[in-house]
Write a structure and sequence with these properties.
The protein is mainly beta. It has four domains: 94 residues, Orthogonal Bundle (Muramoyl-pentapeptide Carboxypeptidase, domain 1), CATH 1.10.101; 161 residues, Immunoglobulin-like (Sandwich); 166 residues, Immunoglobulin-like; 152 residues, Immunoglobulin-like (Sandwich), CATH 2.60.40. Helix content is 12%, strand content 44%. The strands form six sheets. Strands 1, 3, 5, 8, 9, 11, 12 and 13 form an eight-stranded mixed sheet that branches. Strands 15, 17, 20, 21, 23, 24, 26 and 27 form an eight-stranded mixed sheet that branches. Strands 30, 31, 32, 33, 35, 37, 38 and 39 form an eight-stranded mixed sheet that branches.
Length: 622
């Protein structure tokens, strides 16, 4: 060998040593790399272990890593963890910065590795360099979802991602799929969906148009990129897939479609910038069924009609005999709107039932007041029957989903002439099932609410009795007591009802006579006795006295001056066994006879209005 040859060989050797040294300096890998990881750091590993340097950590690379680990006395698992990485770096991992690092912050410009102590990451500050996904769990509440036409941000899939305690991770993308099977309609995704979005909690982190999905045999897929979707070490975050539905569906498309949505994989980066694709756990197996339905079906809209607790009970309403009496409330009701759609009410029919005069004689005009907004209709002359339905139209009354509003039905009464419209005539207002079905109500898409499924309930008023003069009766108190007999079935029950009587429009007379009756006709106070809900009159005695003024007229009547109110007390005694067998007994005030003249016998003008609550509690007699 010549001196020149020796020099050449030495030069080649030096170059080889330099190249090897440079390679050793640049092939520095971060933990952890495994099957599914990609990127330049995987290429570095592949260069070290002699695999094809394509940047994709697959089974061949894993086998090469395992061989390398075996040759270097490491645990053979085919995963580049901290110990394997330190060995490949030619250092124990402490005291030496990756190539190109001049401080303990930031990333190496030549290797892309975080410098020692760095908490930086490829998508922001990620703690640690070895973070990974430790679990992905499907949220079970999303299983059979329903999406209506035109609806936005409807959740169809949910899942939780848990990060390992080795470091933070940043979810960079998800592969989302829709599988469509439709026997008779469209299998095009964009006939159902305009776009999809991915949310981390309440923050949108990704989105895509339906037209961007690739289709293969009815399966539409797209890898949707995320922005700033970070899961902290040893923490769990919830993710959701939502859809914006197409503005309208063809009824033929949605009558037999079967669509399932899934998340096939997740790609994430750790604090060192290594990207890994995760396909395990619940991924590629969620298969949530999604039904695309008409807007009304998905909104679950229901307008409920009910009687308000403050609606007037049957009562005496004083009217004038020479001028109209306005503002008589006949009915109070409530409208409750359930579901997700707003509505507009345009027509609202109401039934009116008069007794005595016809409604076109009794009332000049009728009013519907909904949530303070008043609508007025004149009473048509054709309304001359016993019952008439009047429609309040052109209302254009809007209700928001979830609203509860009150409504009233009010009448302006004519003057009582005493012949056609006479004392004791009554008027009642109701919202019947037929009225409800004829209501014109549209949802926010302009579709009529269905009679059978989207409108329900009724509102029922009580008959208001009209008079220019008469009495008003109010309950004061009730009591019941038992005097035990000497043997079985001989108890004596005493039942007392106290009430007030007010004279309105004239001086009135109330008879001091009282009797028990199964009916509401008689002379004076009419008492009723019930045994376990069944009326009885045997063995019963009744008295009525005026506690305010005990003076009576020569005809045995109590006189009450116009505007005065006096207290009465009706006592009913029930004696066993004359009254019947042992059992639960109570007393009721069925009617009270009165007159504007001091007649010897006062009967026939029985007051029966609003007496439902004029009854004692039950007492056991034995």
């Amino acid at each position: 060998m010549t001196k020149f040859t020796k020099f050449a060989v030495s030069a080649v050797a030096l170059v080889a040593i330099f190249v090897a040294a440079k390679a050793s300096a640049t092939i520095v890998v971060p933990p952890t790399l495994k099957v599914g990881s990609t990127g330049t750091q995987v290429m570095n590993v592949q260069t070290v272990v002699g695999a094809v340097a394509d940047g994709s950590f697959g089974p061949m690379t894993k086998a090469k890593v395992a061989t390398w680990q075996s040759a270097h006395g490491l645990t053979v698992d085919g995963v580049v963890g901290p110990m394997t990485a330190a060995a490949m770096n030619g250092t124990s991992g402490s005291g030496t910065l990756p190539a190109g690092c001049t401080s303990t912050s930031g990333f190496s410009p030549s290797t892309g590795l975080p410098c020692s102590g760095s908490t930086g990451g490829s998508t922001g500050p990620l703690a640690g360099t070895d973070g990974s996904i430790s679990d992905v769990n499907e949220l079970s509440q999303y299983s059979a979802e329903e999406v209506g036409e035109g609806q936005n941000d409807i959740k169809i899939v949910g899942f939780e991602v848990e990060a390992s305690n080795d470091g933070d991770i940043s979810i960079s993308s998800a592969r989302i799929s829709f599988t469509i099977t439709n026997a008779s309609g469209s299998d095009n995704l964009d006939d159902y969906v305009d776009s999809i979005a991915v949310w981390e909690g309440s923050t949108k982190v990704g989105s895509a148009d339906a037209s961007d999905f690739s289709e293969d045999s009815g399966v539409y897929t797209k890898t949707v990129s995320f922005s700033n979707a970070v899961v902290k070490a040893d923490d769990t975050e919830k993710f959701y897939i939502t859809v914006d539905a197409a503005g309208s569906f063809d009824s033929g498309d949605i009558d037999s479609e079967v669509i399932t949505a899934d998340v096939e994989n997740l790609r994430f980066k750790d604090g060192s910038g290594v990207t890994t694709t995760e396909t395990g756990y619940d991924l590629d197996g969620m298969d949530v069924s999604v039904a695309f339905v008409s807007f009304s079906a998905s909104a679950d809209t229901e307008l409920k009609i009910s009687t308000s607790s403050s609606t007037p009970e049957a009562d005496i309403v004083m009217v004038d005999d020479s001028s109209s009496t306005d503002g008589v409330v006949l009915l109070k009701g409530k409208l409750t709107l359930d579901g997700d759609s707003d509505i507009v009410i345009d027509e609202f029919p109401i039934s009116f039932s008069p007794v005595g005069a016809n409604i076109n004689v009794m009332a000049d005009s009728l009013h519907l007041v909904i949530d303070g907004e008043e609508y007025t209709e004149s009473v048509p002359s054709m309304f001359d029957g016993s019952t008439a339905s009047l429609t309040f139209d052109n209302l254009d009354f809007a209700m928001d989903a979830g609203d509860v509003v009150e409504f009233e039905v009010v009448a302006d009464m004519t003057d009582m002439d005493g012949s056609i419209f006479a004392e004791g005539d009554t008027l009642e207002a109701n919202v019947t099932a037929s009225n409800r079905d004829l209501m014109d109500v549209e949802n926010q898409e302009g579709d009529q609410l269905a009679d059978s499924s989207e409108k329900s309930g009724t509102a029922n008023g009580e008959a208001q009795e009209f008079r220019t003069e008469g009495i008003a009766v109010t309950l004061s108190s009730t009591s019941a007591s038992v005097t035990a007999g000497n043997s079985a079935s001989d108890d004596l029950g005493e039942f007392t009802i106290k009430f007030k009587v007010k004279a309105v429009g004239n001086t009135v007379y109330v008879s001091s006579v009282a009797a028990a009756s199964l009916t509401t006709t008689g002379n004076g106070a009419i008492a009723g006795v019930e045994r376990s809900g069944t009326a009885t009159i045997g063995g019963v005695s009744v008295t009525v006295v005026n506690s305010t003024d005990s003076d009576m007229t020569a005809n045995g009547n109590y006189e009450i001056q116009d505007g005065d109110e006096e207290t009465f007390e009706m006592t009913t005694t029930v004696q066993l066994p004359t009254a019947g067998a042992a059992g639960q007994y109570r007393a009721l005030l069925r009617a009270l006879d009165w007159s504007v003249t001091d007649d010897a016998v006062i009967a026939g003008a029985g007051y029966t209005t609003n007496l439902d609550s004029f009854k004692t509690s039950y007492k056991a007699l034995n």
